[in-house]
Structure formats: C-alpha cells, structure tokens
Amino acid sequence: MLRTGSRVLLDGPSGIGKTRLVATLTRDAPVECGAAEIDGRAVGDFGPAALRGLILHLPQRPGIMRGTLGENLRLAAPRAGDAALWQALEQADLGVWARSRAGLDTDLAETGADLSGGMRQRISLARAFLAESPVMVFDESFSEIDEAGAMRILAALETRFPERLLIFIAHNGPVRGLDFDQRITLSSIAPLRLSSRGETPNQRENAREKAV
C-alpha cells in the first residue's frame, strides 16, 4: 500500500516492468494478477478523465506541442495566470532560460525538436508544478537534467508537495539519493519492499525536514 505523502522508489533492472506496473494504475496496461486500487476502489471503476486527474505520469520523453511556452504549460492548468506559470518555470529551473528568450511567448517547435532532452524534461516538470494530481509518477523524468539542476527541482518538489504521493523510477542520478519512505525492487523472483524511514509520524516528519 502506498500512502499519501509518501516518497517511493520503484527499482529494478531495465526491462523488468517498472513502467508497465505504473501503467496498471492509469489503465494503460491490464492488471494480469492481483489488483490495482486507489482509495480502496479498483482502477477499472474510474473513467479515463478521472484517472488523469488523480495520477500524473511524467515519462522520460515528454510530449511538446508546437506553440508557445505558455501554451505548453497551460496543458496542465488551462486557467493558470501568468504569475503561476512563471512560478512553475522557476521551480523547474527554467526561469533564467525563459527570460533570456521571449518569456511565455517563446515559440517551441513540434515535439520540442529545437530543445535539448533536458529542456523538454524541465518543461514537463514545470507542468507538474501546475497540476493538481494527488499522485505523481516521475518515470526517468530527470535522466537528461544536470545534477545540480535536478537537485534544485527535487528540493522544490519536496517543498511544494509534502502531502502528495510521489513515485520515482530512476536508474541513476540524484533521484536515487532521496530519503524514500519505501523502495520497491522488482525482480524475476519477487518484489522486495523496504522502508527507509521510521513508521511514526514524528519520525517521518523529521526525516523529511532533513531531506529538505
């Protein structure tokens, strides 16, 4: 069971099925055995739109549409004002870059072809800061971001979303140094589940303060 406010690392070798396991929560993959539930309800009881509102999945290679930076950010929050968009850009370590271009009016090519992989990931992370989903899955979402930038964004996530369930998949990089509540390792034998923090509320809060 993954609880609200937890930080979880879903671990295991490449190809073991980490992304597919997460996809069972969003109904992008079938549950072949066992059950996938949210708040005690089977994921099959939720419609696609409801699941999208509950679970935000940030893939390694995010989609970028042709248009302005502001339009791309508002995919996550259509009614967000400019101030909220700028705050998200700062939290995603994109503020300096955006100000050096045309700000929210910066034109982006289809699929973000004019951007590096790290910039595309930062834009996706900026959308995450605007989203209201209580569950957020970061699926190799920092793999092309430099270590210093990734650490700043991770610290901003911890500060911004202390009450949300954050699930991370990462083979390397600073993500793996986070103070996780649980590490779930998938293998060909059986999943191994470890708790890296205390189980009492005070222990868990103290650990989170140290991580920040």
3D architecture notes:
- The structure is a single chain.
- The chain is an alpha/beta fold and 212 residues long.
- The chain has a single domain, classed as P-loop containing nucleotide triphosphate hydrolases (Rossmann fold).
- The protein contains eight helices and ten strands.
- The strands form three sheets. A six-stranded mixed beta sheet has the order 4-7-8-1-9-10, sandwiched between helices.
- The chain is globular and about 50 Å long.
List the helices and strands and how they pair.
Blueprint lengths: L6 E5 L6 H8 L11 E2 L2 E2 L5 H7 E4 L8 E2 H5 L8 H10 L3 H6 L6 E2 L8 H14 L4 E5 L7 H14 L4 E5 L12 E4 L6 E4 L5 H11 L1
Parallel strand pairs: 1-8, 1-9, 4-7, 7-8
Antiparallel strand pairs: 2-3, 5-6, 9-10
Helix pairs in contact: 4-6
Protein name: ABC transporter ATP-binding protein
Pfam families: ABC_tran
Organism: Paracoccus cavernae
